[in-house]
């Protein structure tokens, strides 16, 4: 055993991990990828990718999946969090109107397990492949003493592009504009510290393996690991069919913190209770955890995955284009986001 390995870093394991993930990573590459795995830096042919665009604007975002990694580690399932990471990032740049070009990931572990890391990167590659996004690089760091045994962290950076005149939000968002919602698949990648606390306190015996009736046969762990949905296909279709003025990805901070980010100064929103389905896992956490409405909608997405703002006259077209969407509210002339009852 080398002294480096005795100190907790296994170079041979890192080499094996790269071997296991190579095919998945390369499956995301197209002709614009000039250098990927093995290079010191990923190289992407911008001239090829942006050909035909008049005024391309690059849009980038960096994020992670938070403590959802602890749920994955507890259940020994690592094939979904990579997709979560990519889909979250795609949704974030979608809000600016951008389509994804390429992605880079970062995985940090206490002790490198090649099969575990390959499963995580395989999920990242699957998310990229589904969205036509190239995975051109990343980093896997073995960091003993920094991370607890069995723990890992996962983050990534995405770069996308949009024509300047197609950027969102548009400047003409106005009071009375309709707010539609595309449903979430569950918690997505936010609220997991709260969810884990509630599960540990109220389901101490079975933990993530508990099967509350409200989940319809699913375990809590399965519901919590539901993949963060990517809204690229639906948003692309909606923008082709209707004059979308703004989008809002409901992540940490819920509707209260995220919706104001895409509204003009001085405007707010009224979201009407009961107009959409709340995911069973959200209902469970609210009921068992005794969460107030304010906290629930601040910490969780409560089923509102992506909000879409369109003129009232475009609602019928938008709903026909995305039948799962729901008309959930409207923009108001007064600041703040409010939950209201039907008719208010």
UniProtKB/TrEMBL annotation:
Ligase: is it a keyword of this entry? yes
EC top class, as a word? ligase
User: What does the entry give for GO biological process?
Assistant: 'de novo' IMP biosynthetic process; adenine biosynthetic process
Q: Name one GO molecular function term.
A: ATP binding
Which InterPro entries does UniProt cross-reference here? Answer: PurM-like_C_dom, PurM-like_C_sf, PurM-like_N, PurM-like_N_sf, PurM_cligase
Show where the PurM-like C-terminal domain sits: 175-340
Q: What is its main location?
A: cytoplasm
Identify the Pfam families for this entry.
AIRS, AIRS_C
Q: Which reaction does it catalyse?
A: 2-formamido-N(1)-(5-O-phospho-beta-D-ribosyl)acetamidine + ATP = 5-amino-1-(5-phospho-beta-D-ribosyl)imidazole + ADP + phosphate + H(+)
Q: State which pathway it belongs to.
A: Purine metabolism; IMP biosynthesis via de novo pathway; 5-amino-1-(5-phospho-D-ribosyl)imidazole from N(2)-formyl-N(1)-(5-phospho-D-ribosyl)glycinamide: step 2/2
Which residue numbers delimit the PurM-like N-terminal domain?
56-162
* EC number(s) from the headed UniProt entry: 6.3.3.1
Indicate yes or no for the key word Ligase. Answer: yes
Keywords recorded for this protein, A-Z: ATP-binding, Cytoplasm, Ligase, Nucleotide-binding, Purine biosynthesis
Q: Could you tell me where this protein is found in the cell?
A: Cytoplasm
Top-rank lineage group of the source organism: Bacteria
Q: Name one GO cellular component term.
A: cytosol
The similarity annotation says: Belongs to the AIR synthase family.
Name this polypeptide is given: Phosphoribosylformylglycinamidine cyclo-ligase
């Amino acid at each position: 055993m080398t002294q480096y390995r005795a100190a907790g870093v296994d170079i041979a394991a890192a080499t094996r991990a790269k071997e296991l993930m190579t095919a998945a990573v390369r499956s995301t590459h197209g002709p614009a990828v000039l250098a990927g795995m093995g290079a010191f830096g990923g190289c992407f042919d911008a001239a090829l990718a942006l050909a035909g665009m008049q005024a391309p604007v690059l849009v980038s975002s960096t994020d992670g999946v938070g403590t959802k990694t602890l749920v994955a580690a507890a259940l020994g399932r690592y094939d979904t969090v990579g997709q979560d990471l990519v889909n979250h990032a795609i949704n974030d740049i979608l809000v600016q109107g951008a389509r994804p070009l390429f992605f880079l990931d970062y995985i940090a572990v206490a002790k490198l397990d090649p099969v575990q890391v390959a499963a995580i990167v395989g999920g990242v590659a699957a998310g990229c492949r589904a969205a036509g996004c190239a995975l051109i690089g990343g980093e896997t760091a073995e960091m003993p003493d920094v991370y607890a045994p069995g723990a890992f962290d996962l983050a990534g950076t995405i770069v996308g592009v949009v024509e300047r005149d197609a950027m969102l939000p548009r400047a003409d968002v106005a009071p009375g504009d309709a707010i539609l919602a595309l449903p979430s698949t569950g918690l997505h990648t936010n609220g997991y510290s709260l969810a884990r606390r509630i599960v540990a306190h109220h389901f101490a015996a079975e933990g993530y393996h508990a099967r509350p009736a409200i989940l319809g046969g699913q375990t809590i762990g399965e519901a919590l690991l539901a993949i963060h949905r990517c809204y690229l296909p639906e948003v692309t279709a909606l923008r082709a069919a209707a004059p979308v003025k703004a989008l809002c990805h409901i992540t940490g901070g819920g509707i209260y913190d995220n919706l104001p980010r895409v509204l003009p100064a001085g405007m707010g929103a009224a979201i009407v209770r009961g107009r959409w389905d709340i995911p069973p896992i959200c209902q469970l956490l609210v009921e068992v955890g005794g969460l107030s409405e304010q906290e629930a909608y601040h910490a969780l997405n409560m089923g509102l995955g992506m909000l879409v703002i369109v003129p009232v006259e475009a609602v019928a077209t938008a709903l026909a284009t995305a039948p799962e969407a729901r008309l959930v509210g409207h923009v108001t002339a007064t600041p703040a986001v409010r939950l209201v009852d039907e008719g208010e």
